[in-house]
Amino acid sequence: MRILHVSDCYLPRLGGIEVQVADLVRAQRAAGHEVRVATATAGAPMDGVERIVAPLPYELPVHPRGTGRLLALMRGYAPDVVHVHAGAVSPFAWMGVRAAVRAGLPVVVTVHSMWDVVTRTVYRALNAVYRWNRWGLVGTAVSEAAARPIRRVAGPRVPVRVVSNGLDVAAWRPAGPRSRTEPDAPVHVVAVGRLAPRKQPLRLLKLLEETRRRVPASVRLRATIVGDGPARASMERYLRARGMGWVSMPGRYPRERIRELLESADVFVAPAPRESFGLAALEARTAGVPVVARTQSGVADFVRPGKEGLLGRDFTELAACLARLAGDAALRESIAEHNRATEPVQCSWPAVLAGFDRCYALAVERTRLRRSG
């Protein structure tokens, strides 16, 4: 199949969408598909990547004539399907949707983010003007939590399927049984993610502080927060002011170092309530680490309470879950054994590719019916 991916952001940027789309492209090429990418992200030439870039401030990934440029690309390349990748606000991606519809091509739109109240209001307004839910689109979301608000806005005219983010499961599986730590070793809590205000990183520090308060003094704790971003300075000030020297912030790690870190982790915490998927949490779960996360986040798709970890509906419940795991070595070990013994098959690349193939077939059929009707 000939596939054209359209994404505002792509390599060399290294955000969640960029890395996931690049991994999908590699997996599809390995499966025998012919794949190209159209992006508004500047960068060095890459095989099969068309950079539609305008000289805008801050290298914003958008182009004022993006629809026309994309339409010309699509007519020249003639893909079997156009796969658009969108965040909450993705002007270039939606130019790709419009261009594909004008070209009469099947379109699959993957929304990688969680639509909040403001986003839902914007898309309802756009639908009132453009009637985009009548364009024959097929939507996908990365989790059930992310799919629900999209379905409420799009209505029954747009099928919205859940296709998980993909992971090289074998690469994250532990090589063997975990070596036992010393009985009095600190319980190691790990978090990984961008330190951005929307991720509520200060809430993470307050969560760790509350956990320390709830856990008996006989239980030693240490925490490692991997990542970087605009909230780092305020987090460091908070740690100094509260005397939380048991929490370290080593900065951003490459994937290889995160794998090494997870070998010593006892608990992984993903506290953001509006996490559309939680790839770092999936990596930890696959590596055998118990996960603590919010019930309403996308992490709930692959973490069941008492099986792969514990889930909390709010800050208080999340603190109780983290404190429970920190203070109960037997529970931690039983969840860790389950995670090491079972694989999250629905997140493996073969399952993800099969899911997208079904969406592509549905989009092709819907386009055929639209033309004939």
TrEMBL record:
<keyword id="KW-0808">Transferase</keyword>
<dbReference type="InterPro" id="IPR028098">
    <property type="entry name" value="Glyco_trans_4-like_N"/>
</dbReference>
<dbReference type="InterPro" id="IPR001296">
    <property type="entry name" value="Glyco_trans_1"/>
</dbReference>
<dbReference type="Pfam" id="PF00534">
    <property type="entry name" value="Glycos_transf_1"/>
</dbReference>
<feature type="domain" description="Glycosyltransferase subfamily 4-like N-terminal">
    <location>
        <begin position="15"/>
        <end position="169"/>
    </location>
</feature>
<dbReference type="GO" id="GO:1901137">
    <property type="term" value="P:carbohydrate derivative biosynthetic process"/>
</dbReference>
<dbReference type="GO" id="GO:0016758">
    <property type="term" value="F:hexosyltransferase activity"/>
</dbReference>
<dbReference type="InterPro" id="IPR050194">
    <property type="entry name" value="Glycosyltransferase_grp1"/>
</dbReference>
<dbReference type="Pfam" id="PF13439">
    <property type="entry name" value="Glyco_transf_4"/>
</dbReference>
<protein>
    <submittedName>
        <fullName>Glycosyltransferase involved in cell wall biosynthesis</fullName>
    </submittedName>
</protein>
<keyword id="KW-0328">Glycosyltransferase</keyword>
<feature type="domain" description="Glycosyl transferase family 1">
    <location>
        <begin position="182"/>
        <end position="340"/>
    </location>
</feature>
